Amino acid sequence: MGSPGSFRHMSLESLLRLARVASFRAVAMGGMLLCYLFLLSACAHYPVNPKLEYFDAAIHGKPPAILSPERSEDLFLVLAFSGGGTRAAALAYGVLEALAKIDIPGPANAVHSPASTGAHALLDEIDVISSVSGGSFTAAYYGLYGERIFEDFMDHFLTRNINRALLFRVLSPINWFRLASPRFGRSELAAEYYDQILFDGATFANFGAHNSPFIQIQATDIVDGFYFGFTPYQFGLLCSDLAAFPVSRAVAASAAFPGAFTTIILRNYAGLCGVKEEPWVTQALEQRDVTSRTFHTATQVRGYLHPETKPFIFLIDGGIADNLGIRGPLELVAARGGVRKALEYLGLQQTRRMAVIVVNAQTKKTYEWGFLGKIPGLGGVLGASSSVMINRYTYETVELLRRYFREWSTEDQPPGTSIAPIDFYIFYIIEVGFNALHDEEERHYFSNIPTTLSLPEETVNQLREVAARILYASEPFRKLVRDLGGQIPIADSEPIEGTEGRVSIPQSAELLQR
Fold it and tell me: Is the distance from CB of 304 to CB of 238 less than 8 angstroms?
């Protein structure tokens, strides 16, 4: 159009024509951008869980990782990781570190048992990890990558400011239009981020690649209040393919604290893959003993088999239904007729010892208004009420575990054996929680660590260290290690890096034994 000076020689009409053209272009570009953003909002949709064409009980009804020949047939070891944000993830991580330091004789049935030493770590004996909320990050990462967790999980998750990263994503203008969609929520943004920093596109089919245990991530079905396990059995009821389901979405559902996050939604395809209702479900509902736990478990199972009344599943934080991650599986075992039938179902007829390590990151927050005689605000009442309900329910869950173990230890032995029923199964209940600390100041400190997805590295290291201390000082755990022919690593006096000024793991075990 010439040099800027040439505009001086243009007529007013020409200048107005240029202005109209420029204005039209700006409006057109703005309209195109708005259309793009509108389409982005309209197209934003949560990933739909894949349909299962045919349910094969031999494949989809049994968790195959439990049948690994690398673990002892005599011992069935379960870890339960509670909720509690990064606090729970770090405590669970510390327990895994502690188990890795204990050597026991290798199983006689192992195909690849280390013949040179005849021993392996107790960590390698874990059969199942059941997890909720914050504990699910540690469980899923270990299930996918095995002992690599000790190399990079600290950097990838435990010391990363997850809260800030998620907030940036919510505040990003490009995500406002996605979040405006009724089929895309904050939990989907979280799942994308978890996949980016931790899971790298992994699905449930990727579990077990490192001889890892069976990972049972749990959420809460918010409509009915039931626990929901990401297991082949649970997905079989929905006629959905768990193997193709993203691990990141399962963890996002398990850790979707109400309010901060939205629900994760699943489609229910029940009736399209040939899954049949199990006899115990039909029997329990026909007998209709409404005071029985089996009846309520059967009601839950049958509900998923009717998509006409339950076409979608809405999942929220697993800690709402069970903050320890053991009640649901426990009640399913009880409904199936007890521990012997459950072990037969899993192909573990040779198992005689069963140990459950409950890693409980429960806290007891101190509220300022509790000392001032002031009427607490709505937020204070709701926060305290939530904590009371979860803590009380947690206590009842552990008591339920003890009761079932007492009952199962006296189950009739299988036909043809002369072993007394009381001696047939040996159970170990091992609790790792802050209440085990005898030092009041230390117990108060750990019990007031906030539930968040961002903690200082020093706090994370303190949680790792205290997890090992509590575990090593637990008498049921010591008995388990003795019975297996192992030894607590008392000689290992190296403190965890970053815990300067604190006593080392074996020395500080004395705090719990005073």
Answer: yes
Can you tell me the distance from the alpha carbon of 82 to that of 432, in angstroms, rounded to the nearest whole number?
10
**Of 331, 278, 139, whose CA–CA distance to 218 is shortest?**
139
Sign of CA dihedral 346, 351, 352, 355: negative
Residue pair 486/112 in contact by the 8 Å Cβ criterion: no
Q: Kindly report, residue by residue over 104-114, the tens digit of the pLDDT.
A: 987 655 444 44
Count of beta carbons in the 10 Å neighbourhood of residue 240: 24
Which residues neighbour 402 within 8 Å (Cβ) at sequence distance 6 or greater?
429
Q: Do the strands 75-81 and 353-360 form a parallel or antiparallel pair, or are they unpaired?
A: parallel
Q: Residue 267: in which H helix or E strand, if any?
A: strand 264-267
Instruction: State how far the alpha carbon of 403 is from the alpha carbons of 284, 343, 356, 406, 423, in Å.
Output: 21, 18, 14, 5, 17
Q: String of b and e for 453-464 (b: at least 16 CB within 10 Å)?
A: bebeeebbbbbb
SS3 400: helix
SS3 call for 358? strand
**Tokens at 391, concatenated:** 């803590």
CB-CB contact of 355 with 480 (8 Å): yes
Q: pLDDT tens across 271-310, in order?
A: 999 888 888 899 989 999 888 888 888 898 999 999 999 9
Sign of CA dihedral 207, 210, 214, 220: negative
Pairing of strands 312-316, 264-267: antiparallel
CB 47 within 8 A of CB 249: yes
Q: How many separate helices (H) and strands (E) can be counted in the chain?
A: 22, 10
175-231 residue pLDDT tens: 988 988 888 999 999 999 999 999 999 999 999 777 789 999 999 999 988 899 999
For the four alpha carbons of 139, 145, 148 and 153, in that order, the dihedral sign comes to negative
pTM of the model: 0.83
The answer to whether the CB of 146 falls within 8 A of the CB of 202 is no
CB-CB contact of 511 with 124 (8 Å): no
Q: What are phi and psi of 427, to 5 degrees?
A: -115, 145
- 452 C-beta neighbours (distance < 10 Å), count: 14
Structural contact between residues 404 and 334, judged by C-beta atoms closer than 8 angstroms: yes
Query: Is 275:317 a contact under the CB 8 Å cutoff?
Result: no
Nearest to 331, CA basis, from 362, 302, 304, 300 = 300
